[in-house]
Amino acid sequence: MTMALFSDREFGKKPATNEQIEISVWNGIVSIYESYVANHSLDKDFPEQCQDGRGIIGFDPYKFNHLLKATIPEIETPISIKRAEVKPDYSDWGEPAPDVTQPKPSNETDLTETIAILDFLEFCYQHLYDAKSVGDLHDYFQHYHYSFSTREIAQAKFRTDVNYLFQRNGIAYEMNTNGEVQRLLPEEMQNIIKKNYKTNDADLNDLLNQAAEQIHMPALSDRKHGLERLWDAFERAKTYYSANKKISAQQLVNEISAGNQPFADLLTLEAGQLTTIGNQFQIRHFETDKIPLTNIQHIDYLFFRGYALINLMMKTLEK
Worst-scoring range by mean pLDDT, 14-28, 126-140, 188-202, 232-246? Predict the structure, then answer.
């Protein structure tokens, strides 16, 4: 178990709000990866064999990098530490000559690189095993041989190492017990978004489960699909009591408001605005006159706004 550092104890953990991985964090990931190369946890699937044919003795980086690049074309191989690019300072010497390259200052990756890095972490997790030395030192070649019958210890430690690095840097991702990296939602939303709704409408339940799963994904396309599923669930919930959407929706509003007419009016207004949003933006409709959504923060906002009403509906429908 990783011990909390002084700053965590004194000031609390950093909010997990950063969705892009800075170069400094990437370099930390490289250090973690290299430690698992060194302890032979990646040897089984990428083996260097004993010259005498007596088994696996180490890690073959060429096999690893070839399969990694074929699996994740966006990743840079070989895996190595990066240097943050800094613009040269020529203030004491005047302007640089035209043929001098000035690298763009940057300590961040873009979203595409971040997703490739997250894929890399999952790739590593899938190939980790618990390495055990077999027999004595092979005197002639001065190496040991290794066997691999389990993987739980290496995978659990890798997951802990990665999540600790993310937590220390306020990265809004976390590797779960299946080795899948998921986005951490803002704490306020994390507390209300749930899966496995249990209304009498299985399709409605499934739409919301899909929405909740996909809004956790890093990629823009996945989150857009999650938003679409949420709006599909919103429209379906309106017909929960009958195929006549207007009558059914009014019954649902009455059930939720429980005789509080001002609150019923508020719900009706909000539902109407969400319907208008769904018709104006490319959420469920993709005609050329619909407004595209290309900003992740906009998608999150619409999802959280829509989910607040849906969650209230579902609490009534689950009774």
Answer: 188-202
Beta-carbon neighbour count of residue 91 at 10 Å?
7
**Contact present, 238 and 252 (Cβ < 8 Å):** yes
Buried b (16+ CB within 10 A) or exposed e, 282-295: bbbeeeeeeeebee
Q: Is residue 256 within 8 Å of residue 312, measured between CB atoms?
A: yes
- Cα separation, 159 vs 89, in Å, equals 41
Half-sphere exposure of 298 (CA within 13 A, CB side): 11
- d(CA 280, CA 282) in angstroms, rounded, equals 7
Encoded tokens for 151: 């993987």
Percent of residues, the chain, with pLDDT higher than 90: 66
User: What type of residue sits at position 270?
Assistant: E
Question: How many angstroms separate the CA atoms of 80 and 86, rounded?
Answer: 19
Q: Express the helix, strand and coil content of the chain in percent, nearest 5 each.
A: 50, 10, 40
| pLDDT, tens digit (0-9, with 9 covering 90-100), for 109-163 | 566 799 999 999 999 999 999 999 887 888 777 888 999 999 999 999 999 999 9
pTM: 0.74
What percent of the chain shows pLDDT beyond 70?
A: 90
One-letter amino acid at 263 equals F
Q: What is the mean pLDDT of residues 236-242?
A: 94
| CB 199 within 8 Å of CB 205 | yes
Q: What is the dihedral of CA 183, 116, 223, 304, to 10 degrees?
A: 30
d(CA 265, CA 3): 52
On average, the pLDDT of the chain sits at 88
CA distances in angstroms from 276 to 144, 272, 299, listed in the order given: 68, 6, 16
Rounded to whole angstroms, how far apart are CA atoms 250 and 292? 30
Give the angle 75-119-21 at the CA atoms, nearest 5°. 75
